[in-house]
Amino acid sequence: MPSTVRDHRIVRRMASLPRSIMGGISRAMGDGMCLVGIGRRRTNQRAHFPSQPQDHVPQPRDHVVVPEEWSFLESFEQQYGTKHPFFYACRLGEAMKLAEQEHKFLLMYLHSPDHPFANVFCKETLCSELVTQFLDVNFVCWGALADRGEGLQMVATLSPATFPCCVVIAPASGESIAVLQQLEGPLSPAELVEILQRTLEEQGVAFGSAKAKQEEKIRTDRRLREEQDAAYLAALQIDKKKDKLTNLSSRERVQKPVESQNSTNYGRMGTNSTNVTKQHNKVNESSGEKQDKGIANKGSESQPTQILIRFPNGERREHTFLYTDKIQSIFSYIDSLGLPGIGNYRLISNFPRKAYGVDQMRMTLKEAGLYPKASVFLEPL
User: Fold this and answer.
1) Where is this region: Disordered (predicted)?
2) CATH assignment, 13-58+65-213
């Protein structure tokens, strides 16, 4: 295959993203990434837009309004079939967030259907078995039409000299992306895989160190949480011992007057037996009332409170606590679930809005206003 661009050296530069795309990235982070059409194979990916067989020439049909997320995939599969790399049918921001979570680079393909090189590149290179398998394993792939929507915005941002255009992108902070490689013009399958493999090898070191830092941060947050749990449990044991000693002292103070009164009554000669019996009954009634109150108090302390916990990915968990439990108990329960991606966080109650973090760990659920029923949202920090 002839190639107009042969100098494909690694180029690392920063490119500022349009505000509309940045807004999409913010929504992807806040909404837990509502990716469209993520399936195992392309045949299961698009239930609403039936694909055409490969080499089939599409017939004229009535105009159908296709969502922007599907426009590239609809156009591409009509002309080239369903055997191609796994392109995520979603917004660019969602694809970038997914690449960051999977610790992979993003391969962006900007498709210009009318360009003279597009047909040969898509049929012979992009849809080849070699390229398809390589991209599915090593990249998160996202495609867009170069003349509309986010594809048009990225063409304005990256300013490719010709098409087809493939861009390797790494996540970056702020309103920018790190462009690691920008391939323009037709390439053979072997050439494309070789260049992308070299990009992975040369840029993967820096990407791997960033991944290692992120994993170390997760481990640090976990250790901090475990230390907080241990300190909380130690303090809880101390509180229980204090309560036990206090209860013992109270019982001793109640029992001593009863014993003294009984010995005095039985020690007096000539005391009317009826009066002794009455006084003894009064003491027993008084003791019985105190015991009943103690049982009532003990029952009130065991009153449950239902806590509904909502996670950023939309998942919900409900758990029963005692209203005398501390806020720390909710954190301990969440950590015990072992859910992926849960690092440092705080809890937010919906109405009235309150934040519960390290400073509120020793508050009881009743003191925190989470009794008898409450809903909280887990907010990552």
Assistant:
1) 246-302
2) 3.40.30.10
What's at 267, amino acid-wise?
G
**Pick from 306, 351, 314, 353: nearest CA to 330:** 306
What pLDDT, on the 0 to 100 scale, is given for residue 34?
40
Structure tokens at 196: 């992308």
Residues of the chain with CATH 3.40.30.10: 13-58+65-213
Ranges of the chain with pLDDT below 50: 1-6, 10, 28-63, 269-270, 276, 295-296, 298
Give me 193's structure tokens: 């895989």
Cis peptide before 171 (omega within 30 of 0): no
- The SS3 assignment for 148 reads coil
φ, ψ of residue 160 in degrees (nearest 5):
-65, 145
Give the integer Cα–Cα distance in Å for 349 and 309: 10
For residue 378, give the nearest of 358, 361, 356 by alpha carbon. 356
CATH class entry, domain 304-380? alpha beta
| pLDDT recorded at residue 152 | 94
